[in-house]
Amino acid sequence: MALAVVLLSGGLDSSTALASTIEKGYEAVALTFDYGQRHRRELESAKRIARHYSVRSHVVIDLDIGEHVRSSLTDESLAVPIDGGPRDGGSNIPSTYVPGRNIVFLSVAAAIAEGIEADAVVIAANAVDYSGYPDCTPEFIEAFQGTLEVGTKRGVSGRAVRVEAPLMRMTKADVVREATRLNVPLDLTWSCYAGGDKACGVCDSCRLRLRGFDDAGETDPLQYEVGGDG
To answer: CA nearest 163: which of 134, 125, 133?
Structure first.
């Protein structure tokens, strides 16, 4: 059976990417990073999702860079954007951007994949309904694939680990529909940038998720402080 390393944050997108990877016939190794997030909800969700799918293994790596990068996902002194703003310095990239995050995550995933002879690494990057992060684009994935082809032992021998991004061209509604089709346990996922008992409903991630469920004609099982059915 082919083997894939799947980046699993515990959110809607990464959980759907994991389910899609398993449906394609891969045996999955789930890879989660504890990188100094301001809350633990997604990490707990990732553990539950990994258990649900009985993955070959769930690797959790402690990579606490929170004190060394400027991001509202890791620095509680910075405000998380709500209701579509504010953006960082007026750009299209919000303060929730974590510098180099997917570069680091994919590098570690590719190293693990090469070590265990996995065929692919899977990332739930999306360039349609997303927050504007530059490391969630087709151009980034293509460039990183090129790096693996020239910068790894398997790459220079013509057997580079493939980088797969199955959700790249999907709208958030498409992701919800795919998750529903795949019977992803959506009640176990967590997308909110806040870590309360309920999702906030107003951060960028909540707004994208809620709009996706609404556009797909589906009901989000999570409870929300604002919006949703909870």
So the answer is: 125
